Amino acid sequence: MAPKYQRILLKLSGEALAGDGQYGIDPEIVQRLALQILHVKELDVEVAIVIGGGNIFRGIAASSRGMDRSTADYMGMVATVLNGLALQDGLERNGVQTRVMTAIEMHEVAEPYIRRRAIRHMEKGRVVILAAGTGNPYFTTDTAAALRALELDTDIMLMAKNGVDGVYESDPRLNPDARRYLRISHQEAIERNLRVMDTSALALLRDNNLPILVFDMAGEESIEHAVTGDAVGTLVTDGPSVFAGEGK
After folding, report:
1. What's the maximum distance between 2 C-alpha atoms anywhere in the chain?
2. What class is the 7-243 domain?
3. How many Å apart are CA 127 and CA 121, to the nearest integer?
4. Phi and psi torsions of 99, nearest 5°
5. Is residue 90 classed as helix, strand or coil in its secondary structure?
């Protein structure tokens, strides 16, 4: 299979690493993700990854219970580093060269994020895991992923969801008849408040015309299918909206 995209930014939720549990890191899930990323690398695709930390700590949730918001957000950033190191271990045990880069300096465990160095790592065939968000409180990992996707000149941002196979016109858990979009524009997703990602991140990608593919990461080859352009999930890009089953 030939890849449709040559350089991608993969956004992974931290919750996905917990597997069936509500907390922590499931080694089996890490291994499954590592194998999927290995298969993508075998297609000669350059890969950067931004990973969340919700399986360990959620800053917004903690601040809502009275913790100082900045402190809570910094704790959430550290949680993403833990996930990044776990994913690095899984990748390297499968023979994939990996670099963890952080927006907050942690020299003993990771490199500081430098844009040109990150690009060079990808050009040399290494997977770059970008942790600690933007390095600033009040910004989510969605915003960090959008920013890094643009900084690193990626072709697309892949949003691997946990149990969600795309963008729907309404919540499919509440409305069984809700239709899934095959394609939708950034602007319409914002106007309809479809919660593809944080509105600020979505607007940033809209303003810079970078497409997003929202898909379910549950399948064993889901990331590979997304990279090769198979009809999975929902593509957020310019143009009229199309529902699944209506054609392209």
Report:
1. 52
2. alpha beta
3. 7
4. -130, 130
5. helix
